[in-house]
Amino acid sequence: MTSEKFAGRGEAKGARRAVFLDRDGTINIEKDYLYRIEDFEFIVGVPQAIKRLNEAGFLVVVVTNQSGVARGLFNQDQVEKLHRHIQQELDRVGARIDGFYLCPHHPTEGIGEFRLDCPCRKGKPGMLLQAAVEHDIDLSRSFMIGDKMADVEAGEAAGCSSLLVLTGYGKAESEKLEKDRVGVFADLAQAVDSVLVENT
Length: 200
Ligand SMILES: [Mg+2]
Ligand SMILES: [Zn+2]
Hints:
Layout: H1 3-8, E1 18-21, H2 46-55, E2 59-65, H3 67-70, H4 76-91, E3 99-103, H5 126-135, E4 143-146, H6 149-158, E5 161-165, H7 170-174, E6 183-185, H8 188-199
Parallel strand pairs: 1-2, 1-4, 2-3, 4-5, 5-6
Helix pairs in contact: 2-8
Bound molecules: magnesium ion and zinc ion.
């Protein structure tokens, strides 16, 4: 690494734009503590929506709270195996996720080392901040799409524009949202349409 490049760290904004996606209830049908491949189902239109983001030059990064790991219901290897399956299914339509980040913690229900008030659990922005460093992302020109207030809050805390989808817990969560705080869309496909209309 050159000294000039090193000196610029911390001030330089990343070069890439990203769309951060929540997983459960946004990409796939919400099922409590999903980890089995056979239980995974894409919400209609999601693989094609991810492909449209790929083609428009956005990085697509999944950021997911998996307190089931903290609770001892499944382990991180099982989550990563499911994520490889998701990637393989997307491959079939020529779509791609550029990175998966997971928070395995819970501040009160976690067992052992996983009981942690961590910086990565959404509504905190830790996973987005880490991805920004690792993938050279300009957060101020990036988006966070999810079905919960914690997604909206994590996106806002990271300096992104947040969008709420009405799939998963989105309908109930939208009632907690102040009017006009963020864009609200029927599903990921419609949220992506909105991102692409305004930003390409
Ligand atoms: Mg969700
Ligand atoms: Zn965490």
